[in-house]
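cron nightly-structures :: item 1 of 1
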Amino acid sequence: MQTKLAGKIFALGFVLCTTAAAGDVPNGCVQQLLDVQTARLPACAAVDGVDARHIGTLPGGARLYLVYEFPGGSGVFSSMVAFTEDKGVLRRLFVLHGGDRCDNGIKSARMLPGGGFAVVKNQTPLSMGTGPEFCATCCAGTREEHYNAAGARMD
């Protein structure tokens, strides 16, 4: 998908991920952890409008997920969430909220050596200093941020 801004074409820079892998935590459970501290399996389940992707395992066994929410309308909102599981209870450790598509939306994430992780966020022309207007679908570039295993930014 592409959009046009001042005669230039920009690819929409977000990745649509699949739901959590078979045998893993349902995407609805991961989504619940964006808003609440705990969720119980199997009460939470797969839901429409959410894609959750397992990025990796943090030191101590916590799971790290990249979550995209499609709440209706044109927005695609992204977040990172880390949680542990014990006897069917998921406990959130932290949430990092991204944004809407090119407006700080999370394009990708990956684990780093040593247990931290990197998040690549899309940037609008305005946030890159190359355009005077806000446009949530106009990706002008990306910014990579590094976090430690506790979710604290390292750069």
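cron nightly-structures :: done
The longest strand covers residues 89-100.
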